[in-house]
TrEMBL record, chain A:
<dbReference type="Pfam" id="PF17827">
    <property type="entry name" value="PrmC_N"/>
</dbReference>
<keyword id="KW-0808">Transferase</keyword>
<dbReference type="InterPro" id="IPR050320">
    <property type="entry name" value="N5-glutamine_MTase"/>
</dbReference>
<keyword id="KW-0949">S-adenosyl-L-methionine</keyword>
<dbReference type="InterPro" id="IPR040758">
    <property type="entry name" value="PrmC_N"/>
</dbReference>
<dbReference type="InterPro" id="IPR002052">
    <property type="entry name" value="DNA_methylase_N6_adenine_CS"/>
</dbReference>
<dbReference type="InterPro" id="IPR029063">
    <property type="entry name" value="SAM-dependent_MTases_sf"/>
</dbReference>
<keyword id="KW-0489">Methyltransferase</keyword>
<feature type="domain" description="Release factor glutamine methyltransferase N-terminal">
    <location>
        <begin position="102"/>
        <end position="172"/>
    </location>
</feature>
TrEMBL record, chain B:
<dbReference type="GO" id="GO:0005739">
    <property type="term" value="C:mitochondrion"/>
</dbReference>
<dbReference type="InterPro" id="IPR045853">
    <property type="entry name" value="Pep_chain_release_fac_I_sf"/>
</dbReference>
<keyword id="KW-0809">Transit peptide</keyword>
<feature type="domain" description="Peptide chain release factor">
    <location>
        <begin position="144"/>
        <end position="259"/>
    </location>
</feature>
<comment type="similarity">
    <text>Belongs to the prokaryotic/mitochondrial release factor family.</text>
</comment>
<dbReference type="InterPro" id="IPR050057">
    <property type="entry name" value="Prokaryotic/Mito_RF"/>
</dbReference>
<dbReference type="Pfam" id="PF00472">
    <property type="entry name" value="RF-1"/>
</dbReference>
<keyword id="KW-0488">Methylation</keyword>
<keyword id="KW-0496">Mitochondrion</keyword>
Length: 388, 449
């Protein structure tokens, strides 16, 4: 750690002398991080410029991992000065032997000026992906330079990002819970909230299932990349899934992901329009869905990444966003085994609407058994149980 | 003159502390130059300081005596009115707890608290109900007995037998309630480290320490505990300066914690040529070993910080930043995780990390507490702080806490039945005192409210 720091300091000294006038240089704050009973003198010149995040220092006192991130922020800040001094202009020879941190900070700044959302995270994910890491924090801070090949690849992918292509499509893969799934436009990209939906369902089923050999039949409506079905199959070895989607791309992608993960023998993928007349050979214990639930009025407010690349029929749920939800409720009660349940991810306005809808349609024999909040504390997940 | 006064001081120091002679020094003055009824007048102002010292000591002795006699007069018994009213209060509390449990509509923590309290009270309530039924039966038997005429000897015998059985039951119930009332020590189930150290008395103390260590080894074997000697520092004469052993087994801490303290021996040592009786000491420390601390941190103690979507969230946005930071609010410890792309997984990793860190802290804390406990148990190893005396000349063991005498010392030192009996007697005694203390505090609180 210390050696690395020293090296960084040495290599940057020239730049500093040029950028910072001698006065501010001597005023540099010297902070000592006590970490694992070793003292790392970290001179935080960046504090003078107000760009060093003090909370990352505070957290670095507690964990060695975040020491890395503190150091990285520090290094990034150095390179940022570097860039500013040269007015963003890069000469040919600087491009040739560029370090990882420099590449990330260069693209972060470019994304920032172009108004691309999450500029830092985008640059880090792309660089990490090219170097063969899932996330940037896994890269050893000692790994310094990138090869020319890696550099061109990073530049290619980042140019895509400049066109507001979602990160998941650029990388062609993304993680959902424990699984790594292939992502392909225009198939809907699973959101972090959906992971929580599976978590709630997992807890619910865990309580319910006592025997290992008990059959568990699951129907997923609107499977997209297959995220929900595949993680359920992965976590419940006794489960059998039927996944349906209206688009051909989604069905193909789900099948592809299932084959990659070796779960296709328990998964049955169908391309069909799920409506009130939908019928299956078996009945199900659980119907789970992340249906399109965005209201028509909200479709205009979506980010460019979503509108421009993701399939609209996976997003748009009609004027009140309830289009497919009503279909699932209507058909679901007929498809469920006794004691079965329907799990939905919905818009925060929907749980109340679902409650009213169920009150008006008592013949479905369903009741709203639970509404769960997502990590933003919005009511997001609904559990509907069949009345006994 | 000063010499005389110093001799007076010397008289007290010579006597073994807390021996009758020692106490006599305060009450009658003691020493050759003191007259029985007139305390010595002090010619020098500095010596008045000395006057204060024995006075205060005497005071503390008398108060402690008064306290212990008071405790002995007010014993724990089911016939005792105070005890009974205390039990009644517990039963009513149990009923209210049960009712509020059944009424539902409570927060999670409150519910847990109530369930815990109910678990504590449940057994007591049961036992008290049993006592009540036994008492009713007893009253009926009494009635029957008084109603019997002289001729019905058979019936009388039967009734008497029954009465005896009920009385036995009552005794058992009383014991059971007593053990239930004593709050369980958190470490009772833990494995222990037993430490013996020679105290005052040189080689003789070391020899005695060796005897005692042997006794505990045998006791562990008697109890079927697994014992492993960790360190042993022997002296040239075959004594033991210091030894530690780890003991694993059922109730090891519960029973052996009562052995912690200063043990005094009075005998003619092997090293003694003139045949005089010496008094030496050794100390025993019993430390619970930290067991697997279960992760008992409440969810509300943690603050989870994520990159929150500002808009509607869900399908409306596509956020990839997944860093999670968890802060443990009471201690201020923070852990960050951003190594996974999934926020949920990052959260899980951060949670395990922070819990491991908290566990480490708890362990350190426990260790320092243990250090403190060891110091308290070891005391200063002075002869006066003893908990038990082994008097070889009289072939007697006296436990000073319960005030019990036992004879046949050699048998006792074998660490079998007799040691077990002694430990149980002391335990019973200490339980009684503890329960009385609890009851006193409870009644005080009742008066206040």
């Amino acid at each position: 750690m210390r050696h690395f720091l020293q090296r960084v300091l040495q290599s940057r000294t020239i730049c500093w002398n040029r950028i910072l006038n001698p006065k501010t240089y001597t005023q540099g704050v010297r902070a000592y991080c006590k970490l694992e009973q070793c003292c790392y003198p970290v001179s935080l010149h960046c504090l003078n410029n107000g760009s060093f995040r003090s909370e990352s220092l505070a957290s670095s006192l507690h964990s060695p991992e975040s020491m890395n991130s503190a150091l990285r922020t520090y290094c990034t800040n150095i390179t940022r000065h570097d860039l500013r001094s040269e007015d963003g202009g890069w000469s040919k020879d600087t491009l040739d032997n560029i370090s990882i941190l420099e590449a990330v900070s260069y693209w972060t700044r470019k994304f920032e000026t172009a108004g691309v959302p999450e500029p830092g995270a985008s640059a880090e994910y792309i660089t990490g992906h090219v170097l063969g890491f899932k996330s940037f924090s896994l890269i050893s801070p000692l790994a310094q330079s990138v090869t020319a090949e890696e550099r061109t690849k990073v530049w290619d992918l980042c140019e895509k990002r400049m066109n507001r292509v979602p990160i998941q499509y650029i990388l062609g893969e993304w993680d959902f819970r424990d699984l790594n799934l292939v992502m392909r436009p225009p198939v809907f990209i699973p959101r972090p909230e959906t992971e929580e939906l599976v978590e709630h369902l997992w807890l619910y089923l865990q309580e319910d299932l006592t025997r290992e050999d008990e059959e568990l039949d699951i129907l997923e409506v609107g499977c997209g990349s297959g995220a929900i079905s595949l993680s359920l199959l992965h976590e419940f070895p006794q489960a059998h899934c039927t996944a349906v989607d209206v688009t051909k791309e989604a069905v193909e992608l789900t099948q592809h992901n299932a084959e990659r993960l070796g779960l296709c023998d328990r998964l049955n993928v169908k391309q069909m329009q799920f409506n009130t007349s939908a019928d299956f050979e078996t009945k199900f214990d659980v119907i789970v869905s992340n249906p399109p639930y965005i209201w028509t009025q909200d479709m205009g407010t979506l980010e460019q990444e979503i509108v421009g690349y993701e399939n609209h029929c996976a997003l748009h749920g009609g004027t009140d966003g309830m289009g497919l939800i009503r279909d699932i409720i209507h058909t679901g009660h007929r498809l469920l085994k006794p004691g079965g349940s329907i799990w939905l991810e919905v818009d925060p306005r929907h749980p109340d609407m679902i409650q009213t809808y169920l009150n008006n349609h008592l013949q479905y024999q369903l009741h709203l058994a639970g509404v769960y909040q997502d990590f933003n504390e919005r009511p997001r997940f609904c559990c509907l149980e069949l009345r006994e | 003159m000063i010499f005389r006064w110093l001799r007076h001081v010397g008289m007290i120091v010579h006597k073994p502390a807390c021996s009758p002679g020692f106490r006599r020094c305060f009450s009658w003055g003691g020493g050759r130059w003191n007259r029985p009824h007139r305390p010595p007048t002090c010619p020098l102002s500095t010596v008045t300081v000395f006057h204060k010292f024995p006075l205060s000591t005497r005071l503390s002795i008398t108060t402690s005596q008064a306290f212990s006699t008071a405790a002995r007069v007010r014993t724990f018994s089911l016939q005792d009115e105070a005890t009974w009213s205390y039990l009644k209060r517990l039963v009513t509390e149990g009923q209210t707890v049960m009712e509020s449990l059944q009424s539902g509509e409570k927060t999670d923590t409150e519910h847990r608290r109530l369930v815990q309290r109910w678990e504590e009270l449940r057994h007591i309530v049961e036992k008290v109900q049993q006592v009540e039924t036994t008492q009713k039966e007893l009253v009926e038997v009494e009635k029957l007995l008084s109603g019997l005429e002289d001729g019905e000897t058979e019936m009388r015998d039967l009734a008497l037998q029954e009465k005896e059985a009920y009385e036995n039951d009552m005794k058992h119930l009383e014991d059971e309630i007593l053990t239930l009332l004593v709050p369980a020590d958190e470490a009772d189930e833990n494995d222990i480290i037993l430490e013996v150290v020679a105290g005052v008395g040189g080689q003789e103390a070391m020899l005695f320490t060796s005897d005692m260590f042997e006794m505990y080894c045998q006791y562990a074997a008697y109890k079927n505990w697994h014992m492993q000697v960790l360190t042993m520092d022997t002296s040239t004469l075959g004594g033991l300066r210091h030894a530690t052993a780890s003991i694993k087994g059922l109730n090891a801490y519960k029973l052996l914690k009562l052995e912690a303290g200063v043990h005094r021996v009075q005998r003619v040592p092997k090293t003694e040529k003139a045949g005089r009786v010496h008094t030496s000491t050794m100390t025993v420390a019993v430390l619970p070993q930290p067991k697997e601390i279960d992760n008992t941190w409440d969810k509300s103690e943690f603050k989870i910080e994520t990159k929150k979507a500002s808009g509607a969230g869900g399908q409306h946005v596509n956020k990839t930043e997944s860093a999670v930071r968890i802060v443990h609010i009471p201690t201020g410890i923070a852990v960050e995780c951003q190594q996974e792309r999934s926020q949920l997984r990052n959260r899980a990793i951060a949670m395990t990390t922070i819990q491991a860190r908290l566990y480490q802290m708890k362990l350190d804390q426990q260790r320092s507490q243990q250090q403190l406990a060891r110091q308290q148990q070891m005391g200063t190893a002075a002869r006066s702080e003893k908990i038990r005396t082994y008097n070889f000349t009289q072939d007697r063991v006296t436990d000073h806490r319960a005030g019990v005498n036992m004879f046949n010392l050699q048998d006792f030192l074998l660490g079998g039945d007799r040691l077990d009996e002694m430990i149980h007697t002391v335990q019973q005694h200490l339980h009684r005192e503890e329960v009385l203390l609890i009851m006193e505090q409870d009644s005080k609180q009742q008066h206040k409210s």
